[in-house]
Amino acid sequence: MRQLVPFLIVFIGLGIFLTQAVFLIWLYRRLKKSYEPISPETNRVVNFAFAGMLFAVSLGFASYTIFLLAAGNKTTGTITEIRGSHDKDGDEIFSPTFQFIDQNGATNTIRSSSSQSPNPYQIGDQVPVMYRASKPSSARVDSFMDNWGVALVTFALGTFLLLLNLLQRKWREWRGLNKANL
Fold this sequence. Notes:
Blueprint: H1 4-34, H2 40-71, E1 73-86, E2 92-101, E3 107-111, E4 126-132, E5 135-141, H3 144-181
Antiparallel strand pairs: 1-2, 1-4, 2-3, 4-5
Helix pairs in contact: 1-2, 2-3
């Protein structure tokens, strides 16, 4: 049962995400047919839907990280390669490749999907690694950004959309009061 809870949270989060995605597609098609400017109420609904989708994604990533922290296996790996690439702004970013031995004695080589700048690793560095026993190929470096980065960024974007909604509403109220006083 303990292992089932994170998957249920991810499943519910995915359900919320898909429901809101379908709603946004429906809303987009409806607005595209009308060729009218978006009303403040529609804008608010769209922002709430996007914020909800971002919160669902954040919940999914956070629950998977919690599952890994609680039930995942931990070991030490070795950095074997560092890939350098450039982001869309032209800045150089680095992604490590690490190798570790799982609980069955098999050697696993993983290319990390996360990138950082400046490069925090050197070839030969020892790094903490987390992985699921049933799927060692999904291992990750046990660092704050690898564990919580996506969840925090999506949560921050969702919070930003909610705050933007509040500010827009207050601005409209203030503007309405000022026009009435003129």
